[in-house]
Structures are given as structure tokens and as C-alpha cells.
Amino acid sequence: MKKQKPLSTGHSRREFLKGAATAAAGFYLVPRHVLGGPGFTAPSDKIVIAGIGAGGKGQSDINSMYQSGHAEIGYLCDVDDRRAATSRERFPKAKYYKDYRELLEKEQKNIDAVTISTPDHNHAVMTMAAMQLGKHVYVQKPLTHDIYEARMLTQAAEKYKVVTQMGNQGSSGDGVRRMVEWYDAGLIGEATKVWCWTNRPVWPQGIQWPEQGTTPPKELDWDLWLGTAPYKEYVDNLVPFNWRGWWDYGTGALGDMACHIMEPPFRALDLGYPTEAECSVGSVYVGEFQRGYFPDGCPPSSHVTLKFKMPSGKDLEFHWMDGGIQPTRPEELGPNEQMGDGGNGVIIEGSKGKMMCSTYGINPMLLPTSREDGKKVPKTIPRVENGDNGHYAQWVKACVAGHGSKEFKELSSPFSIAGPLTESVLMGNLAIRSYDVRKPRENGGYDYPGRGIKLVWDGPNMKVTNFDEANQFVKREYREDWSLGV
């Protein structure tokens, strides 16, 4: 078997994917009939999971872990009793907490792993707290709210020797692996441009924060929900979904979809940190020639351009578009052929051709679609059992096997990969937020020095080198009594 190279925060994805190419993809356990009859799984082949965030996506995450057959749901945690109700009914023996800190303090000896499916702004503190206790972690995308947090979690995962996975399930799909194999086989030559797009946001965005607060529901612990974010009064229509459009809590369309959509080209092209970022954003006008200024919230649409260095030394243009904005259809695509999945997609342009896929890397194809040479490319990368549906079980089995195991090395989205991907995603948000930086003029009005420029990014040091005001968005200041613990 080809020797594995150490995983790092830069390049390693090709080695990661191919290092186990000759290894069996299955998970080896003592046969169930030997241990206790058909359907029996020995306790030593199971992990006890605490689910932080038990409603919505958390509910489906917890169910998927349980369905792997190698996990017991021992504990549930949610700040909103209403959202947790279904999971509590589904797992009546699971002990319930509202504060994840109390859960981890009291039950640390009883749990093996933690799933985190909460709003973005609390991902990092919860994840770090669990890892520092030696617990394996599964975290919904995006991994973190800030670039700094992503770097810290990536480093901590290796420091504490825990098994990690981000919830971008398409990374376990066959489509992503096929695109890597096509690219490595040279079917499109060297990549020159990437286009990624989404129809998100599908929640209110680019609007003013409500002026009037109200009383939170009795089932919701509002202070715990705020967590690391600055204190504000509770407002209607924020919980449980629309927080995504506000910078204190969410990461906009990029945070919601880019870990799914940018992941296939990020992996296929073996990208590291971007070197530049620039953007344009959509506007909301509140009067004639009167542009609304709502810096608390994400814009209604945006176009971000990142630059990456390719192995040849050439620059790669990487475009992200949201709010329904899409790139021009490639000439190789027929007039009635769908681009991506209609609302979302990826096109990678190369020196010898192009390839395209839908969200999660689904339905990869070479362009024009009449090309047949892709069928001749051998499968060199191990597939995940059940594809993207096996993303959860893959992590559970790696937790059972342990850090450094074969199962660990075959994970689709450990923090060593998910961390740098998330940093690139959030670099787009850094550019978008820099667009709204304003300074008052002496004679009235404002200047917007972050508009019409490109940001030069020092990836290893997490710093914009030509516009210092942008660096305030690399790392947030948490509310008092909240800390990342590093």
C-alpha cells in the first residue's frame, strides 16, 4: 500500500484520497453471529454519543449516527425544548441538558463522541471544549464562523488525537472521487477557472435588524442561544432558521452552501489557502438613489473571486456566486441541457476541457456531455459504503477504530481537510464584510475603502496585508465569559 503522507493544513488531499487505494473499504468487526447472534453489536464496537443541537439538522444527524448500528445516543442537549422534543421522544433513555458546558462537565466520563448541530457562531467553542476532553467530534458545516476558529480547530484535532468530521456529506459521495480521478488523468488539462453558484439565500437577507425586541418563548434559553455573540434582545423570526443571514450568528449563503459546492473543485485541484480575494455585492435601495446600509446582515447576493496558486505556479481564478447569480453557460453545453442542478452547481475549466457537477458533487460530467473518455478512467480512489449516505457511519466507525486507524485515514472530511476548506469559504465572507467598512468624511458622508480593491491574503499568518481594516473579521471578540480556550 502506498505510504500515507502526513495530513497538513495546506496540500495533502491527493495523498489522503489515494493513500488507501488498495485497502479494503469495509469496516472490520468480529462477526455478529460469533458475539451474540444475528443483529448483535458488541458494546466494544459502539460509541456513546452526546448530541448538542437536537432539533432540525441536529435531529437528522443524531438519527443518522444511531442508524449506523455502532452508536448509542446517550445524551441530548438543546437550548430550546421545543426543538428537542422529537429527539427526546425518539431516544427516551438519553439524558437531557440545556447547557453543553454542564453536559460535558458532568458526563465527560460517560461519552465517547459529540455531534454539534447548532448555529454557526457557537460551533468552535463547543467543538474545542469537546476535543480538549478527548472526545471525537462531528460538526455541521461550516466548521466555524471565523477563519481563526477554523485554524485553531484544525490544529487542536491533531493535538488531542481525536476523530473529526465536518457535515458536508457530499465529500463521501462517488461524484467527488470521480472528478478527482478525471482531473488526475488529465482529461481537462490544468485548471484555469472555477465557477461555483447557488440560489441561496432562501431566508430574509440584506434587510435591517428589527427595531423592536420581544420576550423569548419560555422553552428557549435565549442567553445560552446567544452564546459567544453580543447580547441583543430576542426578536421574532430569527430562531430557528433565519439567523443565517446575520453576521453575529450566521455566515450567509457561503456558510450554508459553499462547503458543499466548493468542496469538489477544492479537492479535485488539491487547493491550499487563497492568495487574493475581491467581491461585489447586491444592493437594497430604501429610497431614490438611497442605498440601504445594513452591516449587521449579509447581502442579498454576492460575487466573490478568489485566487489560488496551482502546482505549476500559475494562478487559478475561483468564482463564487450567490443570490441566484450564475455564470454564463459554457459553449459546450447544449441549449436544453441543464447547467448544474439548475439553482446550484460547479464548472471547472481546464486547458484541455471542462467538467461540471451539481451540489454535493452529484452527477459529474465532462463537457460536452457526449464525451466518452471519462468512462475509461479507472477507479483509483476507495469509495465510501453507501456514498454520501455513508458519511455518518464512516465517522462512527472511525471513532470505534480510533485515531490513526485505517478508518481514520480514510475519512472524507476530517478537520485536516475541512479546516482549510472552511478557511477558503470564509475568506469570501471576509471580502464581503470588508465591502461595508466605512469611514466618515470631514464634510459629511462616508468613504468605503474596502470597495473596488482586492485583498491580498497571507494564508499561513491569517492576515490581509494591504487593507488592515479587513483583519477585524478574521477573529471575533466573544461575549464576556465565553472563550475558545486556547
Plain-language structure description:
With 486 residues, the protein is of the alpha/beta class. The chain has a domain at 172-384 and 446-473: Dihydrodipicolinate Reductase, domain 2 (2-Layer Sandwich), CATH 3.30.360. It is built from 14 helices and 19 strands. It has helices at 13-18, 32-35, 57-67, 81-90, 100-107, 123-132, 147-159, 174-184, 222-226, 252-261, 263-268, 391-401, 406-409, 415-434, and strands spanning 47-52, 71-77, 95-97, 113-116, 136-139, 164-166, 191-197, 276-281, 285-287, 290-291, 302-309, 315-322, 345-350, 354-357, 365-367, 439-440, 446-447, 455-458, 463-464. It has a nine-stranded mixed beta sheet, covered by helices on one side. Strands 3-2-1-4-5-6 form a six-stranded parallel beta sheet, sandwiched between helices. A hairpin with a 5-residue loop joins strand 16 and strand 17. The longest helix is centred in the last third of the chain and has 20 residues, at 415-434. The chain is globular, with a radius of gyration of 23 Å. The two termini are 37 Å apart.
